[in-house]
Amino acid sequence: MNTRTGLSAIGLLLIGIIVGALIFSQLHESTQPVAYSAPEAAPNDAGSGDGESHPADRPLNTLRDLNRAFVEIAKKVNPTVVTVFTEKVYKVRGFGGPFFSNPFEDFFREFFGQPYPRRRQPEEREFRQQGLGSGVIVSQDGYILTNNHVVAGADTIYVRLMDERTLSAKVIGTDPKTDIALLKVEADNLPAIKLGDSDKLEVGEWVLAIGSPMSPNLAHSVTAGIVSAKGRSNVGLADYEDFIQTDAAINPGNSGGALINLDGELVGINTAIATRSGGFQGIGFAVPVNMAKFVMESLIKHGKVIRGWLGVYIQDITPQIAKAMDLPSTEGVLVAQVQEDSPADKAGLKEGDVLIELNGKRIKNSSQLRNDVAATPPGTEVELKILRDGREKTVEVKLGTLEPERLSPELESEVEDLLGFSVAPFTEERAERYQLPRDLKGVVIINVNPKSNAYRAGLREGDLITDLNRKKVNDMATFRELISDLKKGDTIFLRIVRKDRSFFVAYTL
Could you tell me which residues come within 8 angstroms of residue 77 by beta carbon, excluding any fewer than 6 positions away? Predict the structure, then answer.
């Protein structure tokens, strides 16, 4: 038994030596921007007598070099990460409402023929909810990247720097579709992180995650891991998904923090975890820095995110579709519908076309194409390579501007101001986009004001409203009719379908 244990230990040591040697072979080049001096060998170090170290010492030195690299990177980057504090103020006036009856009401009405005598209405009370997240300083004059869900609906935002300074922050803009928000603090000469290139990131590459998990007392926690995967989509966290997956530990409070490479560059904004226990289970997601940079630059320049628009409804190619259409692989996307008078329509794209390249870049799936088109400025001429009837063809398309979906001009402001959200007809395309059952009826929420009671009650983009105040919502016409008599102060009761589950939401307008 002891012999077997000893052999196992030796085997593990040999594996560690081999892995360490492989790491070291790449380490020198990848850590060049982080300057540090390796300790010189002591005069009494064991050697061969000619000044060379003993072979058995080399793996240990390799691990020391890797350890030192992590230390120096953490020292360099940690000051650029901040803790984000948010506060939301809720105003509540007593309890009850149309769905919470008083048992004495029916008694008095039945036996005395009059309503139950009411007392004076309770005074309005305030409740304050604090939130915690992380952020990354990206410019010396105070721009900070974080997640939209960290600051959404917040009435007050503060950030705490590593030197313990606490600064008031304002929201420059948010983009729920990528879960990115841009903050600004009034300060100069702040430590700013260098932005990397997330497109060059490779699976298996070492990364560090820095943030404030769980508590402000754990601010500037550093964890290490590797890039587990790239291009993760259909995670259900945002509309535009191209997540970096990592096993570097990410926990609640880390959202908005930095994911960095061994060059000390920002490669992602830590966003969420996949878990069944509520804690970290080795699967974390980060928004690629290239996507975050695009959003940031658009928010600074335009005050909102301006995206390119092609004007097609697309779908991924399954093995069955590839076989039926005699396609060489499942790469590319299939055009299911071309929107009338869209850039794609004007360029001659047709239903059934297979899009295989955009500006020379292979199209792997619909998420990739959607992200690439959105990140291309409107007015840009792009080159699409397509397959039509088994033949390759090149088409030039001038991209348009992706406009926000609208309810209708006359109802847009009414719905936004009164309900806190906008809706649109429930179509096949929206059923596919939001992963909703196609056999239902209702209207789809396409935008939620993050400062509204609707958002606080839990409503989100992609929710399907099937019932409003216990009445069926069949289409836009019935929705218009049902909201026509609503006013501020009323309580609204909704039945919601989100993906494959349903639930109820009630809140005060």
Answer: 193, 208, 210, 258, 260, 264
